[in-house]
Please model this.
Amino acid sequence: FYLSLFEEILNTNIEDWSEYPLLNTLSKAILTGQQILELSASKENIKHHDVIIISMFRKVLEQADGLFILLDHDSNSAATSTIRTLYETSLGMQFIFEDEDLLENRANSYYVSYMHEQITWAKKVIKSGELSTIYTVEELKEKITKFEASLAKEPLKSVNNVWLREKVRLEKKNKHFSPKWYSIYGNARSFTHLASKYKGTHPLLYSGYSLESHGLTALQSIVTDEETKKQFLTPLRYRHSGYDTLCYLSRTIVSLCTSLMVNRYCSEIKNEFEVFLETNQ
Model:
């Protein structure tokens, strides 16, 4: 059944697949990821940390799907920013899967950190009153109460205690910022440090794409004609030289994260999935 499913996906091409073969393989990687997502979510005895991991994988696919749409429409700037976000999420998944003994705590740490960020944001909004036309005080207080109640119960309570101790340690060093979720059950000091730990990734990739996300590449849209020396602006949509690289990287990221999910939740189809990976090149 599963092999026939993969075969069906391999035979499903985008309309202009012959002209854009790398975009076509990205499409197939996303379609396969969706199947693995559904299969993983349907497993019995799914625990709290499994839900977090499955949700992260869904986010990877969602970001990759958005990237596919942007690449298909030659939206270069937005595509570059999106692959940076996709890259971050995928590294988070690699970090969680890295150590089986720490997997549960690392997954819960991701969720604990998210809750603290939401609580901090809600309190700031209440205090400032600047978004009163969008959120009521009651809504924000309800959000805070809900998250604080979850943090006070297992399986998050023990992880939250570690998070709070780390927060106090940072404050004693006059560092008034929240602990990074990947630093609580790991030794990464920053995301760049985290990226350097995994084979096939590199901090320079992250920092290079960060320039686009921070709006520092505006002048790249100015092109000089070598003959006339006149300068002109590139179109808002065009297929630039980095197109193939973005397609290749995004497909690689999706395939990597899907492999992690298959190994943990769908090992019964591991051999068939490996055949798919070898074929979808």
